[in-house]
Structures are given as structure tokens and as C-alpha cells.
Amino acid sequence: xxxxxxxxxxxxxxxxxxxxxxxxxxxxxxxxxxxxxxxxxxxxxxxxxxxxxxxxxxxxxxxxxxxxxxxxxxxxxxxxxxxxxxxxxxxxxxxxxxxxxxxxxxxxxxxxxxxxxxxxxxxxxxxxxxxxxxxxxxxxxxxxxxxxxxxxxxxxxxxxxxxxxxxxxxxxxxxxxxxxxxxxxxxxxxxxxxxxxxx
Amino acid sequence: xxxxxxxxxxxxxxxxxxxxxxxxxxxxxxxxxxxxxxxxxxxxxxxxxxxxxxxxxxxxxxxxxxxxxxxxxxxxxxxxxxxxxxxxxxxxxxxxxxxxxxxxxxxxxxxxxxxxxxxxxxxxxxxxxxxxxxxxxxxxxxxxxxxxxxxxxxxxxxxxxxxxxxxxxxxxxxxxxxxxxxxxxxxxxxxxxxxxxxx
Lengths: 199, 199
Fold this sequence. Notes:
5-stranded parallel β-sheet
């Protein structure tokens, strides 16, 4: 008898899989991978374009409460931050202190609900300046997750080193890859994802 | 230059694609079909298991408001009703009058936001009594959509006639098909979907 597993994938446009002609994104690829590995699950994709960590903080709990009522193993995968480090009027849309506080608060809220969390790093885009800011945030996020004993999949640098990811982002809209880029990201995440599901 | 198209798929577990090992459901298949036809889109899946039309009415507008802020063509695909006709304590969880009123109200709300809507019929499950109730609701829904000049894709009977759909539902959990069943449903919907997208 397999458990009744329900997982919400919460975050931004990368979570939503924007740009993927297969309409799966990395979240859909990981969910399908779990099915293929003999662990069916109900997955809900709650990624929203343009949303910063502050935007996500404002909606995520209500949306997950709607979806994580039933089932005997309820979990959350969280990925955010790229829209925080986007510059608007010469400043990040959300500063690093606030981004860090938002993530820490979300981890607290999840813990209070009893939902195990897996955090996925914000990926790089086609903008070296923004990537430097995101890489700094990536380190902060890793620390926050470490302090909260929440697994953090730190794929930011690996994606910067991926010719496929960086090429698809560049020839796309400057931020999102196509199907091959999402394949790369899902492959990077798969070991940590399967380890977390088994835990 | 293609338009920036954003679509929310709102409804129940069939919208969410429960049971599909490919993790696309019919909504993901239709979105991928649009991409393949040269119309990329941002699709958001807002299907939630066990939810009746009353449950969906309570959350759908807030969730769509989060997702349909940007873009120059913002739309909604709606499919609900199967959980209304489920019996609890010998009565439908939501009676047909209330189901009809809920749908009519949602169509009004969408019109007030300026969102074009496409409605997809509630599919059959492995329970003849419930299917009879759902078929009656299907007729009501068709009338309501006709009155509101909203296209309604009436696939309920075609799915009852589909050996693939009914077999997968029966050998599955009694309600949801697997990948082949969702293929069948997506194929039935594709002509109406593409016509609506072009309109």
C-alpha cells in the first residue's frame, strides 16, 4: 500500500515552468519521476510569474491550506528569489534582508503546519549583475535552511555552468529556458528530490 | 509577434490530472497542444481534489487575481461538478440547484473581470447512479453556458462511451483515469479548445 502523498510546489515562474513547450517545468518532471519510481503523488503547481518572495509569502499559506487537507503525507517544495533580485529603479525589487526574512518566516509557517519542506535554489538568468545578486542570496538561503534543518538544493552555480541552460535562457526571453533547460534542472534536482521523498 | 496569453484552469481533481503518471492531465495536454500549434501560453493549473462547486467558488477569484494580472490575453477554463454529485449521507454533497447557481455566479464574476471562459463538462466515474446525476447536471450546465454565451464542451456522454476512459477509471481508484484516459479526454476537447483560443 503506497501512502497518499500530496505536494505543493510553491514559487515563481520557474516553478510554473514558463517557456516549457511540454508544460511540465522542473516540478512536473520531478513529479513524473516519482510516479515512474513507484511513488504516485498528487502534485499542485503554485508557481506564479513575476512574484517576489513577499508576493509569495502573502498567498502561499492560504493556497496550500486548500490543497493539503487530505492525504497522509503532505509536503511543500519552495523555490523563489529570482524576482527579488531583479532591479527596478536601480534597486532590487526586494532587498536581501527581506528575502531572507521572508524565507525564514515561510519555513516557520510550514513547520507550524507540520509540512516537511524542500527548498530549491533560485536559478540564473541572462544577466551577470542579477546573477551575482542571486548567488549571494543563494548562500543566505542555504544558511537559513541549514539553521532550520530543511534540505536546500543548491543548483544555482551548476546551472550557470550548464551550456544548455544558459543558451536556452539567452535565446528565449532572457530568463526562462525551454524543454532541454528544464530537463537539465530536473536532472540536477532528482537525487535530492528522491532522497527527500524517501525520508 | 504572438500575444502574451495567460490561462487559469480552475476546477477539481480531473483538472489537476489526478492519476496521470505523466503529470499533465487534460489541462496540461491542451496547453502543450497550443504550444505545438504555435501559440505559447502561460498556463496555471488550479484544480483541487474533492472540491465541490461551492469550494471552488470560495477560492477561484482570489487565486486567478494573483495569476491574471499581466499579459494581454487573460482567460479561464472551468470544470467542476463531479464532487457535487457524490453522495454523502444519501444526498449529493451539493444539490443541482446550488451547483447551477454556483456556475452562473462564476460566469458573472469572470465577465466582470473581462476574462473569456471555456467550460468543460464533468466527466463520468465508475458509479452509474452518480453518472446519471452528473449527466443531468451536464444538461443544466450546457443551458447556463448557452444563456451566458460561453462555450461549453459537453464530453460527458462521449467519455461514458469510451472503453479506454471507463476501463482506466474502473481499474484505477474508481474516479480517475490514467494517461490513456486523459489522452482520450484531451483529444475530445482539442477542437473546441483550439477554436476558443483562436476566437
